[in-house]
Structures are given as structure tokens and as C-alpha cells.
Amino acid sequence: MKLYPREQYLAKIRGFYHAPDLIKVITGVRRCGKSCLMETIVQELLECGIHPENIIFFDLDKKEYNKIVKAGQLEELIEKSSQAEGLKYLFIDEVQNVNGFEMVLNGFRATGEWSIFITGSNSYLLSGEIVTKLTGRYLEFEMFPLNFEEYEHMKTFYGKDISDSPAEELQRYILEGGFPRTIFLDNLNDKRTYVRGIVTEIFEKDIRKRIKIRNKATFETIRTYIINNFGATTSLKSLKKSLGKTGTPVSEATIARYVKALLDAKILYECPRFDMKSKKSLNGEKKYYLADLGFYFTQNTDNRINFGPVLENLVFIYAKAYDYSVSVGRIGKLECDFILRDSMLQYSYVQVAYTIALSKETEDREYRPLESIKDNYPKYVATLDMLLQQRNGIRHINLIDFMKNGERF
């Protein structure tokens, strides 16, 4: 089957295809499409004339490689894989299954004869020894599940039905989530069963193997609580208090450890809060967003959409996929939903709402925080309104059109 090209990510990596001095590390939550991205890179290499014998691909999650768990075994596997002349292209999926893989890969990298690509499902891949042993010798490319633009393009690519109504199609995307495999499942219940399977897989492969979970029920309570309250301002103290009210007494240290496990597994992403007057981060106060909204809807049988946090989540992940640093801004008593900073240290500010067309009061509530920011960086009010207006140089955008066109803030 021809693979759907995730051009947003291919474009970032393409300039390094033939670079043997840098290991290309593709990270992201399980089942977001990392393996298929590497297979697409293989296709592009073959299309540009690279000989098949110069391309080596190992999926270490497959049964035939499940005994490759030590550095020496991995080194032997690679050495036996190809005797081809010239630059060889090595692709290893789920490389964190091998203890001590860092030194092995660095050894092959140092020869100048291998262009290496690896994937991992969690941030353990980029922690510990790889940071110290490979600093300056690798590039990380973080992937996310399909954004709305990719969701529609992939459905078209594989001949799947798309609604004539952009709003209806957005609602489908929100309820179904963006895991690529769900595109091939026609039933919503099947899609959710698949995503629930991903949650189980993450727990077994990315969490339980890494940290001690003394009480699985407590961990699942914390996981469910945070997922159900995504987009809400949260602190360890408030989490402890709320969980205590539900009959789950738990220490702040345990909560912190379990939240970190969810962040490391890339189920959750942390969005810090920033005081724009003092130019300091607000300690303890954060928001958490989901790598994919499917994680929320698989846990909740109610299909009603709370558009406030849902649209915020879409904007947050959309911005992260375009490599923005994202934080929440506080300006006195006002709050700006998102402060975005790009790789050139340029800023932009975004307010997110379902609509500002209900009343002048609603409009003022969204514009006022942006109007109080006294700099000349771009400012946006993102809604689902079809009729757009401008006010004091602030750009009012339709979020559906903005995401479908792959625009940048």
C-alpha cells in the first residue's frame, strides 16, 4: 500500500537524509506514524537512486528481533546487515528496547559510513545516557498524530468520505482523534477501541517498564482525572485536593511521579504559565493538553464537545507540531490563552474561543488581553466564526480555514 506522505515532517528531515554525522531521532506518542514516516523516507531514498542493499530497516518491536536487548546483540545485527559500498542508511524502530544502544549507534556514526534514523515512543529515548553521549550528534524531530489538515488530506489520499461541511468534518476529527490507523476504521466504536488499545500499550511498554506503579488503580485515577480536565489550570496541590475529594488520598510526590510518566509517554504535554509583567514563570501553575483528543473521548461515552478546552487543545498541538514553544500568558488579572515563540525567537499571541459573535461582552473578553499587550508582535483571535472582523490590528481568524491551509501564527 502506498504510504501517505507526512510532508510537514518530511520537509524538516529531508535536508539531513545524507548526513552521516547526525543521528536523526524521531519521537512521538505510540502509533502517531513514526514507523510509516521512516518507511516514507526509505521510499524517497529509493526513488532518488539509492540502492536497496544500502538501506537497512529494523523494527525492534517485531517478534524476530524481540531478543535483541543488549548493545552487543544490536552491534552484531547491524554489522551482519549490509556489506554494501558507499553510504548506508540505517533505520531502527523502537531503539530504546536495547540497553546501551547509544554507544553502538555513536560508533557507527563515527565511521562516516552510516546515515542513521531511529524512533522512540517516549522521552526516555532522549534522557540519561543519550544526552551525555550523543550531545551535538543527533537531531530530534517530534511527531504528533494527524492535525486537521493531514486528517482531511489522508482521507482523500485513501479515498475516504469527507463531509461537504467543514464544521461537520472538524467535529468528526475531534471525536475520532488523529491516530493514522483510525482512518481505515469506518465505525466510531472501532476507532475508540483502537485508541483504548494504544493507552494499554503505552502503560505496558512505556510506563510500567520504567517506573514502579505500586497501585495501578491510583495511577489510573490520576491519569483519568488529568485527561478529563485537560486545558484547566492545575497544580500538584490542587490535584491532591481534588483527588482526595474523590476518595483517592495520594501524596504530591506520587502525583508528580505519575504525571511525569504521562508526560514522558507523550500522552500529555505541559503548558507553563508566564507572567508577562514580571517576565517570570508562575511556579506550580500549569495547563496540560493531550497529544490527541482521542485519549479523552475513549474514556467518556458522552459525545458532547466542550469547545473551550477542545479548541485550545487543537491550537496547542498545532503550534507544537510547527515547533513553537507555547506558554499561557498572564497580564495582571487578564490571561492570554497562548504565547508562541518560534525558532527565530519571534513571538505571537493567540486567544481561542468558539465564537465572539454572541455579544459585545464576548468580543471584548477575547480582545482585551491582546489589546493590553504593548508590543508589535502578531496577535490573533481564533474562533469558528465565518464572519471575521479586525480590531486594533488584531487578526480574527477562522480556525478551520487556518488549519486546513497549514498557516503559521
Give a verbal description of the structure.
The chain is of the alpha/beta class and 409 residues long. 40% of the residues lie in helices and 20% in strands. It is built from 15 helices and 14 strands. The chain has a nine-stranded mixed β-sheet with strand order 6-8-7-9-10-11-12-14-13. Helix 3 packs parallel to helix 4 and helix 9 (216-228) packs across helix 11. The longest helix is centred in the middle third of the chain and has 20 residues, at 188-207. 36% of the residues are buried. The mean pLDDT is 92.
SSE blueprint:
Blueprint (H helix, E strand, L loop, with lengths): L6 H7 L9 E5 L6 H14 L7 E5 L11 H11 L6 E6 L7 H10 L3 E7 L8 H6 L3 E5 L5 H10 L8 H11 L11 H20 L8 H13 L4 E2 L1 H10 L6 H13 L3 E8 L4 E11 L3 H4 L9 H15 L3 E7 L2 E8 L5 E6 L7 H12 L7 E5 L6 E2 L2 E5 H6 L5
Parallel strand pairs: 1-4, 1-5, 2-3, 3-4, 7-9, 11-12, 12-14
Antiparallel strand pairs: 6-8, 7-8, 9-10, 10-11, 13-14
By secondary-structure content and strand pairing, the structural class works out as alpha/beta
**Could you tell me the strand content as a percent range?**
15-25%
User: How do the strands line up in the largest sheet?
Assistant: 6-8-7-9-10-11-12-14-13
Q: How helical, in percent, are the residues?
A: 25-40%
Number of strands: 14
* Number of DSSP helical runs: 15
**Ends distance:** 35 Å
> What is the helix/strand order?
HEHEHEHEHEHHHHEHHEEHHEEEHEEEH
Biggest sheet features: 9 strands, mixed
Low-confidence sequence ranges:
none
Shape: globular
Instruction: Please compute the radius of gyration using only Cα atoms.
Output: 22 Å
- State mean pLDDT (0 to 100 scale): 92
